[in-house]
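Cross-check.
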Amino acid sequence: MKDLGSCSAERIQQTLQEDLAEVEENRRRKTNIIIHGLQELTSGDQDEHEQDKNNVEHLLHELKCDDVSVNSIVRLGRRPVGEDTKPRPLKVVLLLLVCVSLTIIGQP
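Predicted model, tokenized:
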């Protein structure tokens, strides 16, 4: 038969680990920005990524956030088939959490 004290301690440890994992996931996601409606090239080659990068840099410049550093840029979802479809959302991961706050409020 299991000792009730050890069972309770195991459960507490498991709950604590789950909570810590959730906090870490939230911290990691705080640097993400999703941009909708940014025009997407239909060619599907390397130029598309460069165009997305240039568009994000221009957008950040317009927001007066020139010092914001971008870690990665990726389109979400599958490439649309027709020409009349909406562009896929763009996920931008910033280097620092501070950058997200600056971008949201639009201050340099």
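The chain has two domains: 1-30, 31-105. The mean pLDDT is 79. Passed to J.P. for a second look.
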